[in-house]
Design brief:
The complex is a heterodimer. Chain A is α+β, with helices and mostly antiparallel strands. In chain A, 52% of the residues lie in helices and 15% in strands. Chain B is mostly beta strands. Chain B has helices spanning 7-14, 19-25, 30-37, 39-51, 370-390; strands at 56-62, 67-71, 79-80, 96-101, 104-108, 114-117, 123-126, 140-151, 156-166, 175-181, 186-190, 205-207, 210-216, 225-231, 237-240, 250-257, 260-267, 275-281, 290-296, 308-314, 319-324, 328-333, 338-342, 350-357, 366-367. Classes of the chains: A alpha+beta, B mainly beta. Chain B: Residues 383-395 have a biased composition (Basic residues).
Chain lengths: 123, 395
């Protein structure tokens, strides 16, 4: 999986290409592209002090992502070599989406995006 | 066609949820259901809750004879726990919490019925009634001690019951110790249990895979106490030393704090000057490692109280949750050495507060319903009548 940040007028667009050749893009704020490409290159966090900043920023970035994109990122993370921070953030986001919902709501919003099993409805 | 979300990742997501949410997730799809029901996920969720101090609650054994759940995540008013698997007898001692481990409560009543119950999932298992093996010709039967805990080696939950045959003419009483194993769903007798006195009406404290009780080696002895530990794995007893002390006038109770044995000394000599000391045994088994963590006196913040007990320790914030006099809770910050009042509305007066994690841990059984408890009441009344006729006294 490779990534190549490219700029557009107001936001940067991060392009991810899976080893299968599938491509998808994620719009991200300017810092995002740099952040994930540094992850991609396996660089550690530069600054321990910025750790908290980065965490806050990550949460904001994740918050606005659509479920489909989250799904792609999660499955893509395998290709990225298991980026724990990314999976961690995304898992937290999906968990938040599930909290307090009824099974029907979960089925509709989450399971449909993530699993193709509409037939197995357990009472 | 969207790809299936890998189970490890789905597990990673779902293990962050409360039991309430997870029970709803079971209805989403068959694969979600089998994931949530799987023993690996249940352990993963349990361990994560414990290590992040989430999904925690307090079970209050209230003076109105009901059990309540106080959610430590939300700190909303405690909720009465209804439909318990064993009947709450109004003229007896009510429901006793024999132990609490990994989200499972061991409950007992004065009829002798015992059950294991997960208040988050409502699943329960009634324990087969285990009669005392031999009623002695004289003497009084006293349930000296009980405890409930987890044997990590055999992945088994065990309930321990110690019965003392008290006869004041003898130097040493015989004891009967039985252990109930959830895996085997059976009781078995443990032999060679040493003779101790004065088991307090406190249930076994689970630390390091062993149940602990505060006892004394001589009868009617307030001093010279020690701690006896019953190892849940090898089912053997050992002694654990208590800290040395010069003074006498305190009431002592053991507990658990951050994985260590704790000891609370409540000083209340003339009902005027209450002082509480919280000690922990930092290195298990080493007498010299007993350290006084802090002491507390009634203050403007805490208000007055007659006694205190440590209920929980939150490692992330380095704070100890204390039960003050069975009426309110405070948080003691070990770093700043300050006390914060935990303002919770509608806390009933209670005898004890037990820390309980919300978990999916369960066993075969069913969901509690009123039919079960009504039959228990009938059986219990019959049993009570029989016991009176036999001449033994059961408490």
């Amino acid at each position: 999986m490779s990534s190549s940040p490219s700029t557009s007028s107001s936001t940067r667009v991060l392009t991810l290409r899976a080893s299968t050749g599938e491509r998808f893009t994620i719009e991200a704020a300017a810092a995002a592209a740099a952040r994930f490409s540094s992850l991609e290159n396996g660089k550690k966090h530069d600054d321990e002090d910025d750790e908290e900043e980065l965490r806050k920023w990550d949460a904001g970035f994740i918050r606005d992502l659509a479920p489909v994109v989250i799904h792609k990122l999660i499955t893509a993370s395998d290709y990225l070599g298991g980026r724990d921070e990314l999976v961690y953030l995304l898992a937290g986001k999906v968990a938040d989406m599930i909290k307090g919902k009824t099974s029907e709501q979960i089925m509709f919003r989450i399971a449909n995006d993530f699993t193709p099993e509409e037939e197995e409805i357990r009472r | 066609m969207t790809n299936l979300l890998p189970p490890e990742i789905l597990g990673n997501i779902l293990c962050r949820l409360t039991v309430k949410d997870l029970l709803r997730c079971r209805s989403v799809s068959r694969s979600w259901c089998s994931l949530v029901d799987g023993p690996d996920f249940i352990k993963h969720h349990l361990n994560r809750s414990i290590s992040t101090s989430r999904n925690l609650g307090l079970v209050l054994n209230a003076r109105d004879r009901d059990l309540y759940w106080l959610d430590l995540d939300t700190l909303l008013s405690p909720v009465r726990l209804s439909q318990l698997p064993i009947v709450n007898d109004d003229d007896g001692d009510g429901i006793e919490i024999l132990g609490c481990c990994n989200g499972v409560l061991a409950l007992g009543n004065s009829y002798g019925f015992m059950a294991l119950w997960n208040p988050s999932t409502r699943k329960y298992r009634n324990l087969s009634y285990s009669d005392v093996i031999e009623f002695p010709s004289r003497g009084v039967v006293d349930f000296g001690a009980t405890g409930f805990g987890y044997d990590s080696v055999n992945d088994d939950y065990k309930l321990v019951r110690v019965v003392l045959f008290i006869d004041m003419d003898l130097d040493c009483f015989p004891t009967e110790v039985k252990v109930y194993s959830v895996k085997a769903n059976a009781w078995k007798t443990v032999s060679d249990f040493p003779c101790y006195y004065g088991y307090q009406r406190v249930k076994g404290v689970l630390v390091n895979g062993a149940l602990h009780w505060l006892v004394s080696k001589k009868p009617e002895c307030d001093s010279l106490f020690l701690i006896v530990a019953f190892d849940l794995v090898n089912e053997q007893c050992r002694e654990v030393p208590v800290p040395s002390y010069d003074d006498k006038y305190f009431y002592v109770k053991i507990g658990e704090l951050g994985g260590c044995l704790s000891l609370v000394k409540n000083y209340n000599p003339d009902n005027n000057s209450v002082r509480v000391e919280i000690w922990v045994m930092k290195e298990y088994g080493i007498k010299e490692s007993w350290t006084m963590l802090f002491s507390l006196m009634p203050s403007h913040t805490s208000g007055s109280f007659s006694y205190a007990e440590n209920v929980a320790y939150f490692e992330s914030s380095d704070r100890v949750l204390l039960d003050l006099g069975g009426e309110m809770f405070v948080l003691y910050d070990l770093k700043t050495k300050t006390v914060e009042n935990l303002r919770i509305f509608g806390v009933p007066k209670f005898f004890e507060a037990r820390l309980c994690v919300g978990s999916l841990v369960g066993f075969d059984g069913g969901d509690a319903d009123n039919k079960t408890t009504r039959k228990q009441e009938e059986d219990g009344n019959n049993r009570k009548r029989q016991k009176h006729q036999k001449g033994g006294k059961k408490r």
